[in-house]
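Hello Y.,

Per our agreement to keep a running log of every chain we model this quarter, I'm adding this entry. I've kept the format consistent with earlier entries: sequence first, then predicted structure.
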Amino acid sequence: MYNLVSFAGIFILMAFAWLLSKDRNVINWRVIIWGTALQLILALFIFLVPAGSKAFLLVNDAVLQVLDSATAGVRFLFGRLALPPGTKNEMGEESLGFILAFQALPTIIFFASLMGLLYYIGVMPWLIKIFSRAFTKLMKISGAESLSVSSNIFVGVEANMTVLPYLSKMTRSEFCTILAAGMSTTASSVLALYVFILHKNFPTIAGHLVSASIISAIGAIVMSKIIMPETETPETLGLEITPYYQKESSAMEAIINNANEGVKMIAGIIALLLAFLGIVALTDFLIGGVGIRLNSLTGIQMDWTLKGLLGYLCYPFTLIIGVPPSDAFEISKLVGERAVLTEVKSYQDLAVLLSSGVLHDPRSAVLAAYALNGFAHFASLAIFVGGTAALVPKRSSDISAVGFRALIAATLACFMTAAVAGTFFTGGSILLGK
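Predicted structure for the entry above:
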């Protein structure tokens, strides 16, 4: 029954996006049909086709092996502080528990360097071209936005650097698409962080996050083209273009430069968490007192934390994507929390829910992993709009104008990704890893 709910949810989410559309009369239905079909085909291959499941598990194992290698430097630098919960080092010292700053965040540096090396030797440009070619041919969108969306599957805000020569002539619809793709997908370097957080309680999380990023990229195209349809003629419409990339002089330079970028990314994550966690705690204190009085006056017990209030707002969407009602409010709070505290905190809380046995159905955890997999929060809105505008200052007003619509499209794309996964998920799936 829940699979049917998820399937219906795909179209309910698109209908909701249509209600918010800038121009409902000029929507490109080829984009919608092909985009939806590609997501369903990919999910069907992963969840139901034996070869797809084996490929999924192979990717999962490969990511975990790379992640294990990434922790070598962390263990060397931080010793006992770097030990995951329940483990010991060669000297018999036990872990001090999970410490985000010493165990998970440093892996970002390794993955950033690895991605830089893969770019240098040509692996990443080759993969990006494959996805870009498919998006351009099948959905007939511009080559520039196809290339940017494809890049976002693997990297973060820097993805727009691959289309730098074309940014100045992009339409507003193209800007909305590339911003939505950036906020609905997860950079490979940060993906490692989520895997580290969840792997103990969700053994196949790496494979799910990789597939979620690909499906969400397609979903971002669909949702952005509904919310902000193309009313102009893009310069690269239907054309295949080559990624713009300033190649380093050596592999060592690529590793060093991207390691430094990883350090900057960690600093940014720490700054956001420190600032937003403090602001949310203060907000909860201010509204909590009022909420307690309202609860006593009305007799209705409500969660008056910011996380709880946003959870009520997201609750209908968690039901739409096929989360069982018994777990829907817990999952909706995670999605609401993501909007203000970033997906890092939401994945941490998902890990807590899994370890404490609060969730009643494994389906809920899988759909939550897909729905949370993206930078769809207010902090990233500033990062992506500001970062893209910095590349083409003369188009900053156009980019800013579509920013909030792109955030809505990205949020709906993440929900759509979860609904697509929920359409084919079964409780006995080997993709649970249990």
